[in-house]
Design a protein that fits this description.
- The complex is a heterodimer of chains A (about 260) and B (about 170).
- Chain A is an all-alpha fold and about 260 residues long.
- Chain A contains nine helices and no strands.
- Chain B is an alpha/beta fold.
- Chain B folds into two domains: about 35 residues; about 100 residues, no CATH class.
- In chain B, about 35% of the residues lie in helices and about 30% in strands.
- The chains are: A mainly alpha (about 260), B alpha/beta (about 170).
- Chains A and B meet through α2, α6, α7 and α8 of A and α1 and α2 of B.
Chain lengths: ~260, ~170
């Protein structure tokens, strides 16, 4: 019996992955129609992006500061503290910026989207919409998906800029590194194409993944308060796993 | 259905801030800032060995960056490296008996071309060549020379040990 249960659980996983893929195609199909609701898209970009600014900026500042502290310690073992700016910038642009921003957005905006859509489903608002000849995929799902794709790279840029600022604060102001060395080594090593754009591509993909998972979990949430709660949790768990897995795969391809 | 203005304002501010951050990253933390060339002119120099010198490496006088290396090519007939440098127009008074050498910044840092100005009253013009050059100093060569120079003594002891070795191996 336990084997049966496990098989069901396994099958259930495959089924939900397949459903998620089909849902992705449906959302993409509804994208052109959803452009008519550009006000809704604007509101969602405001909600996912602008409302996440405070947490992203604060976290970016602290991540940059702690990076500078830790790397300063490590680099001082090898007598290479001059490379601090380079290492902080590269680890932010290539890795931490996109990943941490995606995790933060999944926690802050993804859960809210799941709960909102889940409650819409539970209170039959989605059915009411389709009765009024408003396609809920085009009005609810697609704008939220697109908003994630738009907002994530911009948030990652803000995160990176704050991280550089934090690293500069610790490295130059506090630890007394030379200002010119910090910037000079950074600018001579960091490349727009290889480092900054690679990070942007990553965060565009993460934006799509996070908002797809959030919308899908909300859309398929069981219409009970318990079901919505479970779906919200699952959004965070699945988003985190998928972000880190995709991050590994994309890094392997890009380097 | 109409969005409250705060949405539109917030979204607009957010998007502008995001792009401002991107522009800041692209211009301030990458080498785009260094690519910016005003007017420049080119100088050439030939080296026996350029070590690890790459294109876009800095060219310096007295430690101040005055331009960068445009290309490094092998000249087939003379079998030496031809380094083409682009120098900022404002530094157009480099004496024509100046010497170019390849230095390393720090012990293990990147290599750059250092120009030591001479005393000639005539200046180098666009396309001129720096005749006096000094190749990159490679640590491997230095170590090699040191070992070879230390050689005779150690090779003498080596040969003696070598000559003593066959009997010792032949004895048992």
């Amino acid at each position: 019996m336990s084997a049966n249960v496990r098989r069901n659980w396994f099958l259930q996983g495959i089924v939900s992955v397949g459903e998620c893929g089909l849902f992705f195609v449906a959302v993409l199909g509804a994208l052109p129609k959803s452009l008519r609701y550009w006000r809704e898209l604007c509101r969602q970009v405001w909600f996912v992006g602008a409302m996440s600014l405070v947490i992203v900026m604060t976290c970016g500042l602290f991540v940059g500061m702690v990076l500078a502290l830790q790397l300063y310690y490590t680099l001082s073992i090898f007598g290479g503290t001059a490379a601090l700016g380079t290492v902080v910038a590269l680890s932010l642009f290539r890795e931490l910026g996109p990943v941490v921003t995606a995790l933060l957005v999944a926690g802050r905006a993804g859960t809210a989207v799941t709960a909102e859509i889940g409650l819409m489903r539970a209170t039959d608002q989605l059915d009411a919409m389709s009765m009024m000849a408003v396609d809920p995929l085009a009005y609810v799902a697609s704008p939220r998906f697109l908003a994630g794709v738009i907002a994530m790279p911009l948030l990652a840029c803000v995160f990176n800029a704050m991280g550089i600022f934090g690293g500069h604060l610790v490295g130059v102001t506090w630890l007394g590194l030379d200002n010119g060395t910090f910037w000079g080594n950074m600018t001579s090593t960091v490349s727009l194409q290889r480092d900054i754009l690679d990070g942007l591509y990553k965060s565009i993909v993460f934006g799509g993944v996070v908002s797809l998972i959030a919308v899908f979990q909300g859309y398929t949430a069981p219409p009970t308060s318990e079901g919505v709660a479970y779906s919200t949790t699952r959004t965070v768990v699945f988003s985190s796993i998928v972000i880190l897995a995709f991050d590994f795969v994309m890094t392997a391809f890009m380097t | 259905m109409n969005p409250r203005p705060s949405y539109a304002i917030g979204t607009g501010l957010f998007i502008l801030l995001g792009f401002a951050a991107l522009a800041y990253l692209a211009t301030q933390t990458t080498s785009v800032a260094n690519i910016h060339r005003g007017d420049s002119y080119t100088l050439k120099a030939r080296f026996q060995n350029i070590g690890q010198l790459k294109s876009r490496a800095p060219v310096k006088i007295a430690g101040v960056r005055i331009g960068d290396v445009q290309s490094v090519t092998l000249e087939p007939r003379r079998m030496d490296a031809l380094v083409v440098m682009s120098i900022d127009k404002q530094y157009n008074d480099i004496p024509d008996d100046s010497a170019a050498a390849i230095f390393t910044s720090g012990l293990l840092g990147d290599q750059y071309v250092g120009i030591e100005p001479g005393g000639s009253p005539t200046f180098l013009k666009n396309g001129d060549e720096l005749v006096l050059t000094q190749s990159a100093m490679s640590i491997e060569n230095l170590i090699g020379k040191f070992l070879v120079n230390g050689g005779p003594k150690s090779s003498g002891s080596d040969s003696s040990s070598a000559s003593s070795a066959p009997p010792s191996s032949g004895r048992p």
